[in-house]
Design brief:
The protein is α/β, with parallel strands linked by helices and 336 residues long. The chain is built from twelve helices and twelve strands. Strand 10, helix 11 and strand 11 form a beta-alpha-beta unit.
Length: 336
């Protein structure tokens, strides 16, 4: 005898699914009304040109051209692998045709993915060094392990403390955290919670991180000739039109260095440009104000300058995004 389910059960199940989807969808609609499918040009978290489709050929050529040297990894934000919020977004995408990758998510790495990366480094014999060791080696002043890597984290959002630090501890790795010093402890900037000084002090004393500068308050864009461009490129000139320490950018970089020295007791030796938006002029300005090196988001490995090179390049970094596959990660580490 075949027992057929009652039609009322089907109707009840459908009604429950509809109600759940509707309830979750209401929150999703409110969220996505203010978010685009991809990071916006005017957003402080916007994707820099290096990640645009027309830059991929250049990306590949840089990776291949710099097959030798030390890779520097750049992470931003972290989250657990699966949460109710992710379910809301998936349902929003399925039922309401809403985007699933808002600005912050593009830069976010899940804990399982970060764990996978660190395990890959560990199993393949990579040792994490800091930027000072890398710079010494590039200047011919020291030696480093044969398989070295530098791990960096930009912005200093609280999620790195909650999710990345435990993984770093487990593998005995350390990271450089580039802080927007004028926003330390702030909540609400681009919907982020920036880590406070006391937490940074504790993690530095432990030896799991080293804090460096990501400017003081220059992680933003301004409108120029109909385009949104990184503020650091527009604020580097003084009243005479010269790139100088007396410019707004010069004052900002000095404020950032002073904040780190006052709060953490050491000078900041390295600077990561917001959006990776450096130039020869602003790089020179940063170095004149006491920074030993500057970091970009251009994807190449770092090695001592060639004998015929007039000046050392800024530090290249491989940026990890939500779209970085394990295959891409292996290519960053071991070469394509």
């Amino acid at each position: 005898m075949i027992v057929r389910p009652k039609r009322s059960n089907h109707l009840l199940a459908s009604a429950v699914c509809f109600i759940v989807s509707a309830v979750l969808g209401v929150g999703a609609v409110a969220e996505w009304n203010r978010l685009d499918d991809t990071p916006r040009a005017q957003s402080d978290l916007a994707v820099p040109p290096v990640f645009a489709p027309d830059e991929q050929v250049r990306f590949a050529s840089l990776v291949n051209a710099r097959s030798e040297g030390v890779p520097v990894l750049c992470y931003h934000y972290f989250r657990p692998g699966f949460t109710l919020g992710r379910l809301v977004r998936v349902l929003g995408a399925v039922f309401l045709n809403l985007p699933t990758i808002p600005d912050k998510d593009f830069w976010t790495t899940t804990v399982p993915t970060f764990e996978q990366h660190m395990r890959y480094l560990h199993e393949n014999g990579y040792e994490a060094i800091d930027l000072e060791e890398l710079a010494d080696w590039m200047d011919g002043q020291g030696s480093i392990p044969p398989r070295s890597v530098v791990i960096t984290i930009d912005d200093g959002e609280r999620s790195f403390v909650d999710y990345a630090v435990p993984v770093l501890r487990r593998y005995g790795y350390r990271a450089t955290v580039f802080m927007i010093t004028g926003r330390v402890g702030e909540r609400g900037w681009n919907d982020l919670e920036i880590t406070d000084w006391e937490t940074l002090r504790e993690l530095e004393r432990e030896g799991v991180i080293r804090v460096e500068s990501h400017t003081h308050q220059m992680h933003t864009k301004v409108r120029s000739r109909g385009r949104h461009v990184p503020r650091v490129l527009m604020a580097s000139r003084d009243r005479m039109g010269r790139v100088s320490p007396f410019s707004p950018l010069g004052a900002d970089l000095l404020a950032s260095r002073r904040s780190i020295e006052r709060e953490l007791g050491h000078e900041s030796r390295f600077l990561a440009w917001p959006f990776g938006a450096g130039s020869a002029e602003v790089d020179s300005l940063a170095q004149s104000l006491g920074f030993r090196g500057v970091a970009t988001l251009w994807p190449y490995r770092n090695a001592p300058p060639r004998a015929d090179s007039l000046a050392a390049d800024p530090l290249g970094r491989f940026t990890i995004t939500a779209r970085t596959s394990l295959r891409a990660f292996r290519s960053m580490m071991d070469g394509a």
